[in-house]
Specification:
It catalyses: O-phospho-L-homoserine + H2O = L-threonine + phosphate. By secondary structure, this protein is an alpha/beta fold. The protein is built from 19 helices and 16 strands. The chain has two domains: about 220 residues, Rossmann fold (3-Layer(aba) Sandwich); about 140 residues, Rossmann fold (3-Layer(aba) Sandwich), CATH 3.40.50. Strands 4-5-15-10-11-14 form a six-stranded mixed beta sheet. Strands 9-6-7-8-16 form a five-stranded parallel beta sheet, sandwiched between helices. The chain binds pyridoxal-5'-phosphate (PLP). Pyridoxal-5'-phosphate binds next to helix 11.
Length: about 475
């Protein structure tokens, strides 16, 4: 199967690319992305059969259905990366919280956020493809906090790869920042920028489409790619854990063929939610995908009014920094899937030129078949955190946004995107617990919960800072070139 461009003009023939090409070069014509045009449909009996498999085997079966050009042996190696997770057999852990409420814990990887679920295998594949082709790549990412550590980790000392990560100075939690500035690897570079996540993502998009920058890299034998969820390689692995949760519930007899479930997703760049939508398209009996935002609630507005309006918005800092985003890149893939490349191009051009786009009421109705959206304030989040902490369950501030969307009369799966350890100050504040400093507070809260904190987190506070650089947005390109020359 091939992927197609998401933006096109009237009568333009859509460019089709192989998965390997989309991984290595993720931007498509007119500044768009790549996405599948059709999805393999899994039959009812096959869902039951798949539900009996271990995660790694399930993942390989799902990938096989797409018939992509990447070799099965490389996918196998990629999936084997899950062996570094807390429980190698269960990288994603589906747990029952109470009647009708499950939580899909996706943070059991090396950097303690769900980004590892996709970036761990993705890193193996990208490095593998680069080696097969005898090419060298500069992989860039912009991060609102969790993509950065996960990207650096997956590429640390990978062959034929250099990785650069841009993070907003003061825009991430302290643990997220420490993860990035202390990450070891000869081939890694972390740069803090004076701006917010949208600035970082815009800088990344500008560099990705800059012929001048690419020329300078070429002169040093490097091609450019990106590890953000603009890359379809990320999305592929994000379909799998939603589909697996559904298949497991079916296999265990919690639901039957006629029962539909709802999936609640704390959203930022919309990659995770898109994965759930694609799982639905593959036949998982998901009724609603519930999109939750923090006070940066542009997605709530969009799914309720059909208007995506950046003109009157300013990014607000919240206790869920990984969702402090206004430009949600993956909504584009949803628009493409529902309304086609020509319409998507129109809307995306409006966004670029007018900082606003509006879909019709009929189009909105179409989106509402699959999605509803709401947002959660920090105050509401803190209440949820406190309530569950009292029961001995630590819910991080991102995942906490989901609870207000639970429908007691239906089976809900909350998608849990990070472990609380990355956000200790917010957790302790929510629970009215005093602490001296973050390190002491972390251990104190862990003791209350009777949880172990991984060494990857506890060791951060004493680790040497290897990447101290902070720069203006206008200096990013120079900084990168300077580093590459070394
Ligand atoms: C990245 C992230 C999100 C948002 O996920 P998207 O796929 O960008 O919508 C939510 N929570 C956490 C903890 C994250 O790291």
């Amino acid at each position: 199967m091939k992927l197609v461009q998401t933006r096109a003009t009237q009568n333009e023939e859509l460019k089709k690319v192989k998965l390997s090409e989309a991984l290595l070069s993720p931007t498509s014509p007119h500044g768009g992305l790549y996405a599948p045009r059709k999805f393999p449909l899994i039959s009812r009996p096959y869902w039951h059969e798949l539900g009996g498999l271990k995660y790694a085997d399930f993942a390989l079966k799902i990938i096989k259905l797409f018939d992509f050009d990447v070799k099965n042996s490389l996918f196998k190696k990629a999936i084997a990366r899950y062996e570094s997770f807390d429980n190698p057999k269960k990288p994603a852990q589906l747990k029952k919280l109470k009647k009708n409420l499950y939580i899909n814990e996706l943070y059991h990887g090396p950097t303690r956020a769900f980004k590892d679920m996709a970036l761990q295998p993705f890193g193996e594949i990208l490095s593998g493809l680069a080696q097969e082709r005898g090419e060298n790549y500069l992989i860039m990412c912009a991060t609102s906090g969790d993509t950065g550590p996960a990207t650096l980790k997956t590429f640390a000392d990978a062959k034929n790869i250099k990785a650069v990560c841009l993070y907003p100075e003061n825009g991430t939690s302290e643990v997220q920042r420490l993860q990035m500035v202390t990450m070891q690897g000869q081939n890694l570079k972390t740069i803090g920028i004076k701006g917010d996540f949208d600035d970082a993502q815009n800088a990344l998009k500008t560099l990705l489409s800059s012929d001048e920058f690419k020329g300078e890299l070429k002169a040093r034998n490097l091609s450019l790619s990106a590890a953000n969820s603009v890359n379809f390689g990320r999305i592929l692995f994000q379909i799998i854990y939603h589909a697996y949760a559904y298949a497991r519930l079916l296999n265990k007899g919690v639901i039957n063929d006629l029962t539909s479930i709802d999936i609640i997703v704390p959203s930022g760049n919309f990659g995770n939610a898109l994965g759930a939508y694609y799982a639905k398209k593959m036949g998982a009996n998901i009724d609603l995908i519930k999109i939750v935002s923090n006070e940066n609630n542009i997605l709530t507005e969009f799914f309720n009014t059909g208007i995506y309006d950046l003109t009157n918005k300013k990014l607000v800092k919240t206790i869920s920094p990984a969702m402090d985003i206004l430009i949600s890149s993956n909504v584009e893939r949803l628009l493409f899937d529902k309304f086609g490349a020509v319409r998507t191009n129109e809307l995306m051009q409006d966004l670029k030129e007018k900082k606003c786009y509006q879909i019709t009421q009929d189009e909105l109705k179409e989106l509402k078949k699959d999605f509803i959206a709401d947002f959660c304030t920090d105050k509401e989040c803190e209440k949820t955190i406190k309530k569950w902490a009292k029961k001995g369950v630590a819910i991080d501030p991102h995942t906490a946004t989901c609870f207000k969307m639970v429908d007691k009369d239906r089976l809900n799966i909350i998608t849990s995107t990070a472990q609380w350890v990355k956000f200790t100050p917010s957790m302790l504040k929510a629970c009215d617990i005093e602490y001296k400093n973050e390190q002491e507070g972390l251990l104190k809260f862990a003791k209350i919960l009777d949880e172990n904190v991984t060494k990857s987190i506890t060791s951060l506070f004493d680790a040497p800072v290897l990447h101290p650089d902070i720069c203006e947005i206008s200096q990013i390109k120079e900084k990168i070139i300077e580093w590459i020359k070394k």
